[in-house]
Amino acid sequence: MRTQKYWIILALSLLIVTPDKTSGENILFFFGISTYSHRIPVWPLVEKLVEKGHNVTFVSPFSPKVPNPKVHEFTPKEITLSMEKNTEGPVALHLRSTVKDQSIKSWFGLPNWGLGLCELFLKSPDVRHWISSSKFDLVVIDGLFNDCGLGLAYKFNAPHLIYDTTSIFMWQLEAFGIPNENSWIPDMQYFFPQKMSFLQRLWTTGNSLRCEEFPRSLPPYVIPVGGMHIKENVDPLPKTLENFINGSEKGFVYISFGSSVQISKAPPEIYGAFIEAIKRIKVNFIWKWEGDNLPSNLPSNVFMQKWMPQQALLAHPKIKAFVTHSGLMSIQEAIFNGVPLVSLPVFSEQDYNAERVHTGGYGIRLEITTLTADQLVEALSKILYTPSYKDEMLKKSKAFRDRPMSPADTALWWTEFVLRQGDTSFLKPMSIYQKLLTIQGMG
Ligand SMILES: *[C@@H]1O[C@H](CO)[C@@H](O)[C@H](O)[C@H]1NC(C)=O
Ligand SMILES: *[C@@H]1O[C@H](CO)[C@@H](O)[C@H](O)[C@H]1NC(C)=O
Predict the structure, then answer these.
(1) Are the C-beta atoms of 322 and 253 separated by less than 8 Å?
(2) d(CA 170, CA 346)
């Protein structure tokens, strides 16, 4: 299903036979080279595992905002310092404004960046001590940057799972024997419109590794578990928000650029376009604004604050649209709640997400670096007054919710499956042994 975006890959190279182990296992989550945002989608699996009596250790450069006392946290400080230095400030929007093909450049830069951090991690005396004094029965590895997790799994003589926070990365296709269907499926790392022209097709096919989550063939050990972080039941809204929403007969639009993009640090003409559009559209707006100061001349139909209970807002019956940076978790929450989108991608796989939203007809994609108030008014008017966007989103929502088990229960079941089975090599697709060209969709 195309909306399911997180995958568990049960990787099979290092296996020990340990039958009937389903509780009290020592499980390592290696998210050592990750941003804070990678914690969020996998956390429900961690909580389910500790509820079942497993002993979970979570390695990450960032401590959790709400720690679970049953989870052991290990925070390698060298990595924390390096990550903070590289991700601070309004980097994302600035990159998009100044480097037009930044999505391609940054994707290619990622593996090297990850490699450097892995080296830093493995050289740390604290880490070496931790490795020599630890034992694990299973290692769950964040799929981006964290290749040194494979070395840890080898060292601990434990089977491992790979958890990808997006769809499969291009460098994983060949490694995991996943059919490369890039003649008809666009790629996550590069942005191309969904209907590819002949030249683009040639180019993507020639570039041998690509991936994403349009309907595609997956080997038996790749399990979609998208949407684990989504709450079935949300907390009630704070009074200030509830009052503001109640004051609007025509409903409200929610604007948020997530946790990494600081819209308050964008050039004033960009957020000025939003303010101008808000003045011209007769609905209420709720805007997650992370700056310390509010912009001047705000119209009365907008409410801004630093933090928003996003899932509760998206679940509110009066919401009409969500203006988003197209982060994967935001899009999944919108799909779950059936809220049509205006997508303004900034970095990472957000272009790819926004493109899917646009061609799927459940939202409209705009370009943030050249945004005008007119464009925003036109897009929002379409979303508010043309029923097809909402209708398409409701169809998506219905399909997204229709699963035999919740995504977190699915992930739990497959994690324990690996613990129970030990040897899962029977799930390995034969294509893993094929040469590159024979598994590409070149026909
Ligand atoms: C649980 O994990 C922690 C941290 O890795 C370790 O110190 C502890 O000994 C483990 N407990 C058991 C019962 O194995
Ligand atoms: C908002 O309206 C709803 C439905 O009319 C009502 O139940 C709720 O109490 C109102 N909330 C506030 C804060 O006025």
Answers:
(1) yes
(2) 20
**Given the structure tokens 């060209």, which residue do they identify?**
437
Q: Which residue among 23, 57, 73, 130 is best mutated to probe the pocket of ligand 1, counting the most ligand atoms within 8 A of its Cβ?
A: 57
What residue ranges define each of the domains in the chain, with the CATH number in brackets? Answer: 3-228+406-439 (3.40.50), 239-401 (3.40.50.2000)
pLDDT digit string, tens, across residues 89-116: 555 676 676 655 444 455 666 667 788 8
287: buried, middle or exposed (CB in 10 Å: 19+, 13-18, 0-12)? buried
Q: What is the CA(401)–ligand 1 centre distance, in A?
A: 37
pLDDT at 210 over 80: no
- Give the number of other CB atoms < 10 A from CB of residue 134: 16
Q: Compute the distance between CA of residue 222 and CA of residue 163 in angstroms, rounded to an integer.
A: 10
Q: Is the CB of 242 under 6 A from ligand 2?
A: yes
CA dist., res. 63 & res. 74, Å (int): 8
Taking the CA of residue 246 as reference, the ligand 2 atom at the shortest distance is 1
**pLDDT band at residue 5, thresholds of 50, 70 and 90?**
very low
> How confident is the model at residue 16, as a pLDDT?
40
Would you put residue 54 in left (φ > 0), alpha (ψ -120 to 50) or beta? beta
Rounded CA separation 328/317 (Å): 22
* Single-letter code of the amino acid located at 242: E
Lowest mean pLDDT: which of 179-188, 190-199, 238-247?
190-199
Instruction: Output 439 or 248, whichever has higher pLDDT.
Output: 248
Q: Residue 243: CB within 6 Å of ligand 2? A: yes
pLDDT(133) > 80: yes
Q: What angle do CA 391, 392, 396 make, to 5 degrees?
A: 115
- Residue in 294, 304, 301 with CA at minimum distance from that of residue 252: 301
Place of tokens 């939003």: 274
Type of residue at 374: D
Ligand 2 geometric centre to CA of 243 (Å): 7
Residues 418, 423: Cα–Cα separation, whole Å? 8
Compute the average pLDDT of residues 247-260. Answer: 91
Q: How many CB atoms lie within 10 A of CB 264?
A: 18
Output the pLDDT for position 195: 37
